[in-house]
Amino acid sequence: MDNYGKEVILDIHNCDIEQFTRKSIRKYFIELCDLIDMQREKLVWWDDLHTPENEKVTEPHLVGTSAIQFITTSNITIHTLDILKKAYINVFSCKEFDANIVKDFSSKWFKGNIVNFKIVERI
Asked: Span 87-113, mean pLDDT?
């Protein structure tokens, strides 16, 4: 094995925040994993869905949802920022996958503009 795998890093701006719901993000993970042939495992959420209104954070760089979709070969993470209309996505796997599929699908799903796209080979 020449390398351990790769990580795709995406920053998407001007997103449609209607796509930032748990329901939509869960569906995004399902469809993305199908497209890049990854086996989904546990899905973990962090957001303020069940937090009392007076305890919710309000800073623009903190309001949103984070989720980790574990896959058999590592994980996919997303951090959304509702007020700023931004999504930050990382796909890491030791199994080969097409980074351009991730980029194109994610941009269409969140209806935003890719402002950062990097592929990091892990060794």
From this structure: 97
Domains and CATH numbers, the chain: 5-49+62-122 (3.60.90.10)
Q: What DSSP letter does each residue of 46-95 carry, written as one string? A: ESSTTS-GGGS---TTT-S-EEEEEETTEEEEEEEETTTTEEEEEEEESS
Distance between CA atoms of residues 27 and 69, nearest Å:
11
What's the pLDDT at 54? 76
Residue type, 35: L
Question: Tokens standing for 7?
Answer: 């990580």
Burial of 76 (0-12, 13-18, 19+ CB in 10 A): buried
What was the pLDDT predicted at 95? 96
Largest Cα span, the chain: 52
DSSP-derived letter for residue 98 is -
Q: Which residues contact 48 (CB under 8 A, 6 or more apart)?
A: 55, 56, 57
pTM (predicted TM-score)? 0.91
